[in-house]
Amino acid sequence: MNKQLLTLLVALSASCAWAGGEETFQQVCATCHAQGDKGSPKIGDVRAWSKLIKEGQTNITADGYAGVRAMPARGNKPELSVAEFASAVVFMANQAGANWKEPDDAMLKKISARIDKRSAAKK
Ligand code: HEC
User: Which residues line ligand 1 (CB under 6 A)?
Assistant: First the structure.
């Protein structure tokens, strides 16, 4: 494969991953997180997000997906995959100054393990 084509592909896949997170945010999460409804951390609110960013990507992605306090599991969209949900979290965190990347397979495994643990604890 020539180098230019490769560069183009890398750029495309990077922008697609990003658009995925933003799209999920707009379609699912914005209902609450656009305005900070119900006490949710508002998108772009550096103060509200800095604590969560410190908690770490694995933890808050898993907790949000499983549901935590007033945050409904999967943002009330049951068909959302862990990867899709994680992209939306990356999008929101980065709007508040984080520099998170789409989780790789190893991180997705850790996130899933924590979701299982949390879901089991709730039963
Ligand atoms: C019905 C409203 C609502 C929707 C829809 C919603 N959230 Fe939330 N979210 C909340 C609230 C409220 C909190 C704060 C929970 C708390 O700490 O009490 C929260 C907290 C979070 C947190 C922090 C979790 C933690 O560990 O404290 C993350 C991450 C998150 N939301 C991600 C998302 C994503 C991604 C979506 C869309 C896929 C989404 N939310 C959709 C209301 C919502």
Answer: 24, 28-29, 31-33, 38-41, 52, 60, 63-64, 68-72, 75-76, 80, 85, 88-89
Angstrom distances, CA of residue 58 to CA of 6, 31, 39, 78: 30, 23, 22, 20
Nearest CA to ligand 1 atom 8: 71
Q: What pLDDT digit, counting tens, does each position of 26-81 carry?
A: 999 999 999 999 999 999 999 999 999 999 999 999 999 999 999 999 999 999 99
* Domain 19-122, CATH: 1.10.760.10
The HSE-up count of residue 16 (CA atoms within 13 Å, CB side) is 6
